[in-house]
Structure formats: C-alpha cells, structure tokens
C-alpha cells in the first residue's frame, strides 16, 4: 500500500500487478501541468475546452486522493506514474 494524498492507494487485487500506463493524452496533460501552465493555457495547447481540462484534472485528483495540483504532481512522482 502506498500512502498518497489524504488516503492510501491500493492496487486492485483482481487486476494484473503491472502498473497501468496512462494514456498519451493524460501524459501530455501531466507534462503541461508540470510546466506551471494554467488550465486555460493547457486547454489551448491541447486544443480542447477549458471544461475538458478541468474534468481530466479533477478526475486525476480524485484517483490520487489529493486536493490540488502540487499534491497531484508530488503523488505522481512518488508513484512513478510518469
């Protein structure tokens, strides 16, 4: 079990022990988040709406059980997601 954010993340026992590989789009989103771009700037770079970026980022926060961008980036590094 790996502690991350406000809770702990456990690997699903019914799945393969191999790490899930993020989709290329999500990887690109992470890279742009790391550079410090705003959600609006990320949306422009990815050619998607601001609402789409916010949805993806909020889904990431939820999966990592974090409350903000810095926590999410730290957690992703801890879990070696990228």
UniProtKB/TrEMBL annotation:
Offer an example of a GO molecular function term for this protein. Answer: DNA binding
This protein is called HTH luxR-type domain-containing protein
Q: Which residues form the HTH luxR-type domain?
A: 19-80
Organism this protein belongs to:
Paenibacillus woosongensis
| Gene Ontology terms describing biological process | regulation of DNA-templated transcription
Is Cytoplasm found in the keyword set?
no
Keywords from the UniProt entry:
DNA-binding, Transcription, Transcription regulation
InterPro entries recorded for this chain?
A: Sig_transdc_resp-reg_C-effctor, Tscrpt_reg_LuxR_C, WH-like_DNA-bd_sf
Lineage, uppermost ranks: Bacteria, Bacillati, Bacillota, Bacilli, Bacillales
Q: Which PROSITE patterns does the entry link to?
A: HTH_LUXR_1, HTH_LUXR_2
Q: Which Pfam families match?
A: GerE
Keyword Transmembrane helix present in the record's keywords: the answer is no
Q: Which domain of life is it from?
A: Bacteria
């Amino acid at each position: 079990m790996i502690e991350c954010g406000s809770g702990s993340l456990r690997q699903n026992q019914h799945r393969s022990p191999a790490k899930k590989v993020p989709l290329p789009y999500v990887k690109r989103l992470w890279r742009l988040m790391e550079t410090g771009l705003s959600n609006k700037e990320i949306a422009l770079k990815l050619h998607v709406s601001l609402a789409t970026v916010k949805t993806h980022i909020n889904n990431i926060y939820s999966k990592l059980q974090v409350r903000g961008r810095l926590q999410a980036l730290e957690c992703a590094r801890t879990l070696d997601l990228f």
